[in-house]
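Researcher: Re-running this chain for the archive, since the previous output was lost when a drive failed. Same request as before.
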Amino acid sequence: MHIATKMKPAKISKEIKIPEGVSLSVDAGKVKVTGPKGSLSREMIAHNVDITSQADKVVLISLKPSKKEKMMLGTFSAHISNMIKGVTLGYTYKLKVSSGHFPITVSMKGNIFEIKNFFGERKPRIAKILSEVKVAIHGDIIEVTGTDLEKVSQTSANIEQATRITNRDKRVFMDRINIISKDEN
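Model: Regenerated C-alpha cells:
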C-alpha cells in the first residue's frame, strides 16, 4: 500500500511592484525605500530567504521553503509593502479626547505628550512620542502622522494607554483618549 506524502515545492517567491517615484535598494539584508515623503530603512535577514531588487519590482525568494521560511516571506513582503505605502502616502491616526467628568487638557512639550486634569489628577499623565512622528492637536482631535507605520501606531497606542482606567466602570467613567480612525493619506 502506497501512502501519498505532501511534497514541498522547490521554491516559492513573491513579487512586489515598485511604484513610479519610489526607489528601493537592498544591501546585505538592509532594505532602503525612498519616496516623495521621505526614506525608510529596515534590516530583513532570515535564513533561506533572499531579497533582490529589480527595475520595477522586488522579488523575495525562498529556495527550500519550510513553514518558518513561508512565514518570513509573508512578513518581509508585508513590511516592504508598508514601507512603500509610507514613503508615498504616509500614515495618519486620529484620536479623540473624551471628557465627561473633568475637562482634559492636552499639550506637547518636545517629544512628550502631556495629559492634564485627567479625572482631576494633579500630576499630568505622560505619553512618549517616537522619533519621525508628528503630533498635531486640533481641539479635541489629535492627529498623529508619519511615514513609518509601526512608529505612528505605537505613538497612538502610547497616547491611548496613558489614559487607561482600571477599577472603574467604563460605561460610567468615559474620560479617555481613543483612536477613532487609521488612514493612509
